[in-house]
Write a structure and sequence with these properties.
- By secondary structure, this protein is of the alpha+beta class.
- It has 3 domains: 3-84, no CATH class; 93-191, no CATH class; 210-318, Dna Topoisomerase Vi A Subunit, Chain: A, domain 2 (3-Layer(aba) Sandwich), CATH 3.40.1360.
- The protein is built from 14 helices and 13 strands.
- The chain has helices spanning 57-63, 65-71, 79-84, 93-100, 105-113, 116-126, 185-191, 210-213, 225-234, 251-254, 271-285, 294-298, 301-306, 310-318, and strands at residues 3-5, 26-31, 36-37, 43-45, 54-55, 129-131, 135-141, 147-153, 182-184, 219-222, 239-242, 262-264, 290-291.
- The strands form 3 sheets. Strands 1, 2, 3, 4 and 5 form a 5-stranded antiparallel sheet that branches. Strands 6-7-8-9 form a 4-stranded antiparallel sheet. A 4-stranded parallel sheet has the order 11-10-12-13.
- Strand 4 (43-45) and strand 5 form a beta hairpin.
- Helix 1 packs across helix 2 (65-71) and helix 9 crosses helix 14 (310-318).
- The N and C termini lie far apart (56 Å).
- Bound molecules: zinc ion.
- Zinc ion binds at residues 17, 19-20, 22, 45, 47, 51, 53.
């Protein structure tokens, strides 16, 4: 194996940059012994100043151990590696594309509270989708751009609070007794027999794919998808990712980003829980997750009881 940047042999050896989109300006890494390219996102943009994208094979293999294993290195029997080799099931991208043009209460809230250009940026970054009754779809896409599933939820368009019961719902006349506060794309597809019976969900962090789009941005980790998106509006220099739940801060979800700089912002009720989880994960994966206690220092007793998160604080200050 001899991996290097591909030598220039005419325009066909220069590609479209995955970050800035400029054609014929992206040099890919290739194994010159086999003439096989590394992944299409791995390479360097020729526009060093204006774009600056550089995703190295080393970073890629660290982030994608299974790819490394299958394609380039002899197998070993390390248990942890075997776990990585279980094939990941995905959702066809046409289902995602169908949701992108659809409205949602969540998007209405963003458009009413943030500049349109900024909202359009996060719509593209996170592939924010819409579903029936103006529900939002938060797609989980990993750093190999595999679509794992989508989480479908309802929000109030004015307060951006979750709608958790039928009586909270402003569109309750549209809903029948089957109202569900949360459902998943893969479960809906299974119900309609659009996925094979043996299809199994493996979740990833919400926003994991941003690692490919913005490899240079430090990662900020929060609990909810809504918080990740809102914080990305306030603080764009970071890759905001969400675990999708209090108990979803797990070794498997952190593994693909373990080499990155990660700061976690637990919700107010969960600092101690996340602290002990993060310490365990750091030991097992070699990650260096740091916990921010910025909220702990500012919160009132009421804030704590409400279990507010970092986006609630930003929305309060700006609202
Ligand atoms: Zn570029």
């Amino acid at each position: 194996m001899n991996i290097q940047l591909e030598k220039y042999k005419g325009q066909s050896t220069r590609f479209t940059c995955p970050k800035c989109g400029r054609k014929h300006s992206f040099t890919r890494y290739i194994d010159t012994e086999t003439n096989i390219y590394i992944d299409e996102k791995v390479g360097i943009c020729n526009r060093a100043i204006k774009c600056g994208y550089h995703y190295t094979p080393k970073q890629f293999f660290e982030n994608n151990p299974s790819y490394n294993q299958n394609s380039f290195t002899p197998s070993n029997t390390n248990k942890e590696r075997e776990k990585e080799l279980i094939p990941i099931k995905q959702i066809d991208k046409n289902y995602l594309l169908q949701t992108l043009s659809k409205p949602s209460n969540f998007l209405t809230f963003l458009l009413n509270n943030f500049p349109k250009n900024d909202v359009e940026r996060v719509m593209l970054d996170y592939f924010i989708g819409g579903a029936k009754d103006n529900r939002v779809v938060f797609w989980q896409i990993d750093s190999m751009l595999r679509i794992r599933t989508g989480k479908i939820m309802q929000y109030n368009p004015t307060t951006c609070r979750r709608v958790k019961s039928e009586s909270d719902s402003i569109t309750q006349h549209l809903n029948n007794s089957t109202f569900k506060p949360l459902t998943w794309v893969h479960s809906e597809l299974k119900k309609q027999n659009l996925l094979p019976n043996d299809w199994q969900l493996t979740q990833c962090l919400f926003g994991e794919h941003l690692l490919i789009k913005y490899p240079e941005k430090p990662i900020m980790l929060v609990e909810s998808e809504k918080t990740a998106i809102i914080m990305s509006l306030y603080q764009p220099p970071f890759n905001w990712m969400a675990t999708g739940g209090l108990n979803n801060l797990t070794e498997n979800k952190i593994y693909p980003i373990r080499k990155q700089q990660i700061t976690a912002f637990p919700d107010l009720k969960c600092f101690e829980l996340w602290k002990s989880k993060a310490e365990g994960i750091n030991l097992k994966t070699g990650s260096k997750i740091e916990l921010s206690n910025i909220l702990e220092g500012r919160a009132t007793k009421e804030d704590r009881e409400l279990g507010l998160d970092i986006a609630d604080f930003f929305l309060r200050v700006s609202g």
